[in-house]
Amino acid sequence: MKDFAKRLILASNSPRRRELLELAGYAFKIITSDYREEKFEKFSYENIKKNSSGKALSVAEVIDFPAIVIGADTMVILDSVCLLNKPQDISEAIFMLKRLSGKAHEVVTSITLVDSVSKKQLTRFSKTKVFFRKLSDGEIIDYINAKNPLDKAGSYGIQDFISFAQSKNPPKESFIEKIEGDYYNVVGLDIGLLEQMLNEF
Fold first, then answer.
1. What is the average pLDDT value for the chain, to the nearest integer?
2. Residues with catalytic function
3. How do residues 8-32 score in pLDDT, each as one tens digit?
4. Does residue 193 contact residue 181 with C-beta atoms inside 8 Å?
5. Is 193 exposed, middle or buried (0-12, 13-18, 19+ CB in 10 A)?
6. Which of 51, 56, 17 is CA-nearest to residue 37?
7. Domain at 7-200, CATH class
8. H-state helical runs in 24-89
9. How many other CB atoms are found less than 10 A from the CB of residue 64?
10. CB 189 within 8 A of CB 124
11. Residue 77 parent element (H or E)
């Protein structure tokens, strides 16, 4: 178990981020942020940083003990300008997956650390390019019915198609043909980047 002089707080109720921190061996506590994520029509690093910083700060300001708070936000970018957030319903999930079919898109995650005492901040970004094969309408419907991906940015979870071990050579039946960048960033949190940030912080 990786321990630090100050407690680690994850400002998120994302089960995937929790699982990744546990997998990496970190000792941490979850305090859900009450920050209301902003939805942006166009991607910018400042926009995504605003959300990750807002989540971390909202928790740092309400706790009364020394801690490092982790806030994160993920955006799916298609054709440079199209942001795919979490779908509101099944029809929007279908629409998103049809947009991703046969194309490459980028998954960008902003990670912000905030010191609960000094309110010092550190933000870094992780970007992964994901290539989807051409999908049939039936495949999209079957996937949504089986996995109900309404809580996932872009309407999919990479772990539903490939494992980390398969990320360099995805099976042919996978929706994903290949990725360029960090696999865990697409799951929800670039653990390698987080470790670098904690060491720097």
1. 91
2. 73
3. 999 988 888 999 999 999 999 999 9
4. no
5. middle
6. 51
7. alpha beta
8. 45-60
9. 7
10. no
11. strand 67-78
